[in-house]
Amino acid sequence: MTYGIIADIHSNLQALEGVLSVLQRRGVEGYLCLGDVVGYGPRPNECCELVRELDAPGVLGNHDEAVLNPGTENWFNAYAAAAVLWTRALLTEENADFLRSLDEQKVIGDLTLVHGALDDPWGYITEPYEATTTFELMSTPVCLVGHSHFAEWYELNANSTRARHVTATGDRTLTLADGVRYIVNPGSVGQPRDRDSRASCAIYDEEARTIEIIRTPYNIKACQQDMLEKGLPPALAYRLMFGA
Asked: Where do runs of H (alpha helix) occur along the chain?
């Protein structure tokens, strides 16, 4: 089985359509979604509907949760909170029900899915020491995470107490080794922050035991224009150009 892995779409329809086009051309047989379908961007309903059509097992992201629960936007910065309020007012009940149906964690075969970390679904894993608790809690060889918007992975072998951190610059393939556990972030579809503005996703090949991270160009200017026309904070639109 091959899976397309998507995370942190953030209502960016152009980016989502771009990565799905690539994943479909590559012939993936299923999809996994690591949360934050909504937030920041201008097309929350369209993105929810596309993900629903994929019938993809998925988990809840912190922006998804904030849109569903008034008051939680107070934990966000002003720009993100404004986008949450805008999204909440626009989201259809059907799409809100879809987000409500998502669990915080999910196990699919050899994979554990969570948006942030296993000890805190909204916690960030950005350094090896932050990966420690998730490695301790994992019941599968691989944990797939999102949230940081960085394409990267952490690996920990049975003889080590400190994880190795690998930044996935451009397209990169990880071959899963016996006796090693992995925490893998496929990067963000809709708002990369690793200084590469291209949409990011991954393909997990269950038989070959590989995870391939893929970057895909998309029409950033069209998304930016859509955001500005809808009155979303300009700073959220401008950052897309720089992958920041």
From this structure: 13-25, 44-54, 62-68, 78-90, 93-100, 128-137, 220-229, 234-238
